[in-house]
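user: Please supply your own:

assistant:
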Amino acid sequence: MPWYKGDTVLDALDVFEKDKEIIDKPLRLPIQDVYKFDNRRIIAGRVESGVLNVGDEIVIYPSKRTSKIKSIEYWQEKDKTTKVEAGMSVGITLFDEFFYKRGEFITRKDDEAPLVGDTFKANIFWMGENRLTINKRYKLKLVTQETECEIAAINKVIDASTLFSNDNAKEVNTNEVAEVVIRTKDKICFDEFRNNHVTGRFVIVDGYDISGGGIINGLEILDVANKFVKENVELPITCFDEYYYLIPYNEIKKVAVERKSYKIGDKLPINGDTYYYPDNFDVIDLNNELSALIRDGKLVDLINLNDYKYEGYPVYSSDGFLARVKNQDDFINFKNDFKESKYDLVDFANKWYDPLANKRIVYKAV
């Protein structure tokens, strides 16, 4: 192939760098438990990577509290040591006494910190009898951490037998591989799998069964809301989120079906499972001082609140709650009351909003 000017295969292989040994990677000591002996509080766990010495300055994640290693405990004199490394189960004490708990990561102060977050990208292999679905609650286990989680997005599903790829899947079937975004109830510690194979992998429990396993590709930052957009002006909205009554949990939960930016002229999803809006209405955001005008189900303008004039159309908050505004005088009082109640909005909301005016309750199993 005369067009190719790159390295040969053998030359390219020589360029690859060998991965670091597990003891040469940053320290990761997930806390298994904390025991009290005499006046000592001994932190027990398994060193998953790196090296730890007596006297090392350490940081505990996700709280980021700092201390120093006081001792490495031992049962017999012959086991006494001042250094431990990856693969060893140990008990240690710290110079500082504060609350630390199972699941937290101990790292050395000078080492690269683990990632901390509640949303991350992952590749998973699903083995569960039930399909993996968005917004259902699961349990995630990563080393000694356990927390509730849900699938925030399914980006791609691959059939493991045919290798057929589906970019529009809404669920993952048994024996399928998927690229997903996972959101956990609490912030957890982890690494990208390519950097640390132990702290970068996890399992998902559905009910009482381990139903899937996966590897972490990195942190993910999701938009917290849909948006109305006009040029460089953006108005975050949650008025198109659904509110479902989840029977197993006996609670109402807000669910974002998708995250999308709506531009001028775009058709809007004015009717959902649990909400319905008229063809013509206005959305008012008092905090951001913006107004969105919706006509014939389309976004027609996004303007400053000071330029807004009440035209007789229903007025909704950016959360989708109907405001009790019937004329321009009402609208002026609505704005003035908000300014006076900015730091105590309970009375304001009860006075001005009708939260059930355009909502309906829909029951769901999950």
